Amino acid sequence: MIAAILLSILIPTVILLGIIYLIFKVTNKESANIMSPKEFGLELGIFISLVSSVGAFISVVFAAIDKKYPDVLSNNNYASVMNEDVRLAVAVLLVSFPIYLGLAWYRAKYFEKNADRRNVSSLRWPHYVTIFVSVFSIFISTIITIYYYLGGELVARFGFKMLTALLVLFALAGYHYFLLKRDYSKKTKAPIIFSLISFVFVLGSVIYSINVLGSPAEIRKMRFDEARLEDLSTAQSNILNMWQRNKKLPPTLEAVYSDSMNTYQVLPKDPKTGEVYKY
Questions:
Q1: Would you say 52 and 92 are in contact if contact means Cβ atoms under 8 Å apart?
Q2: Local structure of 153: helix, strand or coil
Q3: CB atoms within 10 A of CB 68
Q4: Backbone φ/ψ region at 270: left (φ over 0), alpha (ψ -120 to 50), beta
Q5: Confidence (pLDDT) at 185
């Protein structure tokens, strides 16, 4: 849910950043007062990878909360949908979070070497935008979480989801406020501490997702079982239809699929062994 909110904000925010950059480009004649194309690309990459990582992380945490406090009123397909969401979130985390850490480290080194660029006004805008997106996401996620609570959401799920959203988004806004006020001429361990804490939480969410979903080999076995269940369900329907028409059961499974009513269907076989199912 929160991932969808953040990603829905991403595209218009990127457009907003581009407009801001163009405004600075037009209104500031001195190139020293605006971002260079390299700096703009760096800030844009940091923003996209950060928003993607935060959204994916919150999705995994929400899935953990849903699993810890299951709701019997959830639909029957919820587990498979949740697994798909978790897989997508983990994939996003494994790609976007390392990119964010690398780009953030490169930006810090860039400012250390280019002291004259630290206080450029246009380079401060990405931090303001990130703080704005964080606060706006807190506002929207609070509304949506309360909406689901009023619709019968479990109190525990509501409380932990609300707490997760507030902690993550407030931490994000607070860290970027720190970056706005940071003096790059002075050494500080705050970025390293923030990176280490983020890495621990991301690693924990990935480990959790593996425990929830199982290993790739286990997931493949589950997919084989799903294919078998689908084949058997189709075969059962065909056998029942044939019995209703002929008032007797077919002697073999081959006879079911050689029937004129089922000639458009292929005789089902085990997806792993390739053998015809026994009848």
A1: yes
A2: coil
A3: 10
A4: beta
A5: 67
